[in-house]
Amino acid sequence: MPHLSIAKTHGSRNDIFVIDGSPDDHFAAADLSRAVERLCDRRTGLGSDGVYFLADNGDGSAKAWFFNPDGSPALLCGNGMRCAGRLLLDRYDTESAVVHTGPYSFTVRRADDTPQGVVQVAVELPPVDFTPAAPIVADVQWPFVGQVLPAFHATRAVSALAVPNSHLVSIVGAYDEAELVETGRRVADAPDSFPIGANVSFVLPLDDTEVFVHTFERGAGLTPSCGSGVAASRAVSSKLGLVDPDVRLRVRNPGGPARTWLQESGGQWQPVLEGNATVVYRTELDPADLLGDSPLEFTGETYLPEINAFTALFDDNLKALHAAGVNPTMI
Fold first, then answer.
1. Whether pLDDT at 4 is above 60
2. Phi-psi region of 274 (alpha: psi -120 to 50; beta: other; left: phi over 0)
3. Among residues 126, 234, 253, 315, which one has the fewest Cβ atoms lying within 10 Å of its Cβ?
4. How many Cα atoms occupy the beta-carbon half-sphere of 198 within 13 Å?
5. Is 21 left (phi over 0), alpha (psi -120 to 50) or beta?
6. Which is nearest to 76 in space by CA: 50, 109, 41?
7. Which stretch of DSSP H or E encloses residue 91?
């Protein structure tokens, strides 16, 4: 099989490998999960929060498959989609492109660079669904919005929705990271109540146009940022009447800032997620190396100007969080 051509990227420090080609181009089905897990391992692999395989259709569009760092498949990684889309935009030197994944199509567009020189991309995600066909919470009446559910938390109200990943979102008055982790683990350990699992987000409003969001991701745990979690949090904020759908809300994650808003699509809310799509390095690997036991080694080209530009943006974001009294450890 051909060598893997890999770009390490990140969206709000959500590290994502983007691999050229489909999974079948490189791995037998029985080996795929192990290979992804090995690549993402931060001790013996190259380390990331997930992997996108991106197969170019040759017409400016591509097909994509996403896998969590434990090797399990997922329908979407919003931050990763920005990064995969950015690579496709660069390849065709175009302003917009379409990426297909599962039954969904994502339009990605170039956005303005930040004042620090950070490359940004906006991605139109699938419409949010407050009455999903696969129930996120068992034995409740849908829609399930702003209600207390003891299996989730004894006192915090929660809303459930698909983006299309399953999400549980709570608006909080103060951020408690230990409580977020405890709640995320409780959901993961309660399949009778949450049969398909879910990402858990706490949302802290900072002002009328700015919030802090942190997400405990299914299959990954606490991460610096979750793109679909940002979109889910944005939709819940409007569902509860806290902010109008078309307001371009700034979201500060521990991993960096993004902007998100909702647009009408067939009578539904379609989230748009805009933020950095940073290339960290490019490298190549023999697929067989991901099926062995030896530690993986990086040899390739590092993109220092992009790294430095994002570092400046990240520092400004961290200062804003500290000024608001928010001190997350996942930074």
1. yes
2. beta
3. 315
4. 32
5. left
6. 50
7. helix 78-92
As a whole number of Å, the CA-based R_g of the chain is: 19
Of 104, 39, 30, 97, the residue nearest 67 (C-alpha): 39
DSSP for residue 264: E
CA-based end-to-end distance of the chain: 38
- 264-267 contacts: CB < 8 A, separation 24 or more? 265/127, 266/127
Calculate mean pLDDT across residues 181-197: 96
Q: Which residues of 11-27 are buried (b: 16+ CB within 10 A; e: fewer)?
A: bbbbbbbbbbeebeebb
- Sign, CA dihedral 246-242-136-71, equals positive
| 109-166 per-position pLDDT tens digit | 999 999 999 999 999 998 999 999 999 999 999 999 999 999 999 999 999 999 988 9
Identity of residue 261: W
The residue type found at 186 is R
The bridge status of strand 96-101 relative to strand 61-67 is parallel
Sign of the dihedral through C-alpha 291, 297, 300, 304 = positive
- What residues contact residue 16 under an 8 Å CB cut-off, 6+ apart? 8, 9, 10, 48, 49, 50, 51, 52, 77, 79, 80, 83, 84
pLDDT digits (tens, 9 = 90+) for 7-17: 999 999 989 99
Say how far apart CA 272 and CA 261 lie, in whole Å.
5
Q: Rounded CA gap, 137 and 123, in Å?
A: 28
Q: Which token pair is 303?
A: 């993109």
